[in-house]
Amino acid sequence: MLQMKNDLSSNQKEKENMLAQIAHEIRNPLGGIELLTNLSKEDLAKGQVKEEYLNKILSEIHGLKSLITSFLNYSRPSPSVPSHTSIPQVINEVKNIFQNDMNRKNIQLKLEIETPSVWFDDNHLKQVIINLFSNAVEAANFNSEIAIKSFINNSCNYISISNSGIVIPQENIGKIFNPFFTTKKEGTGLGLAICKKLCSENNANLYVESSHEHGTKFTIVKEINNEQ
């Protein structure tokens, strides 16, 4: 009972912190939209309309919609419908999405796919891989390599994505899966939190390792059980 009480208290505190962060994230763009709308209103009274103001308003609205969508994906992810999801197929689809970005930075993709499939919701796995691969491409140096591996060890399926680019500071390793935590100037800070939750929805775990010697590696670990 005490453990249940502590868990409920912890969940309530997490929700309160998240709501406060959402309010903060929404307030700033709304303030910008209000300012630009008033400026446009003044210009309209003078018989003028500045397109740059309207474009900025639309940009802020797009950012708000993206934030709300990310929050909904985190707080209420679609139920997992697992199947024998083809790992090579998912990786090939993701590679095609980022091929232009990889070409621009001359990034080579190294594949070591030893397992044909994993018991995972197809859309969930694709969303996780897209997010992790996007981060890897962004962090990778020019003329470098991104490695994707899948294998089975100790009755677990492993899928890892690694690069030798920007290293995550050790003080941030324990925070990167927290909702709204980000060191980027742009972004919601929900991408990795969503990845972690989608893995959890599929009874899998998501881990990260990062060092100057070995670069950064994210690993999905899914235990092989009777579901398959």
Topology of this structure?
Elements: H1 2-45, H2 51-75, E1 82-86, H3 87-104, E2 108-113, E3 117-121, H4 122-139, E4 145-153, E5 156-163, H5 170-173, H6 191-201, E6 204-211, E7 215-223
Helix pairs in contact: 1-2, 3-4, 4-6
Question: Can you offer a commentary on this structure?
Answer:
It is a single chain. Helices cover 53% and strands 22% of the residues. It is of the alpha+beta class and 228 residues long. The chain has 2 domains: 2-75, Helix Hairpins (Orthogonal Bundle), CATH 1.10.287; 82-223, Histidine kinase-like ATPase, C-terminal domain (Heat Shock Protein 90), CATH 3.30.565.10. The strands form 2 sheets. It has a 5-stranded mixed beta sheet with strand order 2-4-5-7-6. Helix 3 (87-104) packs parallel to helix 4. The chain is globular, with a radius of gyration of 21 Å. The mean pLDDT is 86.
Q: What's this, in brief?
A:
The chain has helices at residues 2-45, 51-75, 87-104, 122-139, 170-173, 191-201, and strands at 82-86, 108-113, 117-121, 145-153, 156-163, 204-211, 215-223. With 228 residues, it is of the alpha+beta class. The strands form two sheets. The protein has a five-stranded mixed beta sheet.
Strand content: 15-25%
Shape: globular
CA-atom Rg in angstroms: 21 Å
Low-confidence stretches: none
Helix content: 40-55%
Structural class: alpha+beta
CATH topology of the largest domain: Heat Shock Protein 90
What is the string of SSEs from the N terminus onward? Answer: HHEHEEHEEHHEE
Individual helix count: 6
N- and C-termini, Cα separation: 35 Å
Structure summary, number of beta strands: 7
> What profile does the largest beta sheet have?
5 strands, mixed
Q: Give the name of the CATH architecture of the largest domain.
A: 2-Layer Sandwich
Spatially, the strands of the biggest sheet line up as 2-4-5-7-6
* CATH superfamily grouping of the largest domain: Histidine kinase-like ATPase, C-terminal domain
